Structures are given as C-alpha cells and as structure tokens.
Amino acid sequence: MGNSKRLFGVVRRKLLRRSHSxxxxxxxxxxxxxxxxxxxxxxxxxxxxxxGHLARRAFRALKSLVKLQAVARGVLVRRQARxxxxxxxxxxxxxVRVRARQLLSH
Length: 106
What we know:
By secondary structure, this protein is mainly α. It is built from two helices and no strands.
C-alpha cells in the first residue's frame, strides 16, 4: 500500500509539473499578427493534447498497478481465510473431544 501511494505521488507530481502553461513559440520574422495568434492557439492545442496523452498513459499504468495489487491481496486474503477455517475446524474437534470426556466422566 505504501508503494502505491508513493508511486501515485510521483505520477501526480510529474503531471502537475508538466501542466503549468509554459509555451515556447518560435516565430518567424515575417509573420502577420493574425498568423501569430493562430500559431499560438495551435501550439496551445497541441500541448494540451500531448499533456492529455501523457496523463492517460500514466493513469493506465497506475490502473494496471492497482489490478496487480488486487490480485496479490486476493491471494493473501484467501490464504488467511484458509488458515482461519483450519483453526476453527481444529477448535471444533477439540470441543467435541472435551464434551465427550465430560459425558463419559459422569
């Protein structure tokens, strides 16, 4: 559980670090103001799309990690349940023996 929290923190920090809007635009010397505005909008859209792609990829990796954890925890829980049932069965057998002794001693 600690590892998944730490991994989620790392992924979240990376996404937050990338999500700040630092747009670097290389402008040609002979461009009209309207073209520059369109280039700015295009650059923002491209960067937003790419950041979305990175976020989806990180989320998919995180989902697969959670599924892997669920499988591992399921194995542990089944083992724990099997041990508990075995102990309860042993206690029931012991209780039968004690009751049988009580009945025979009277």
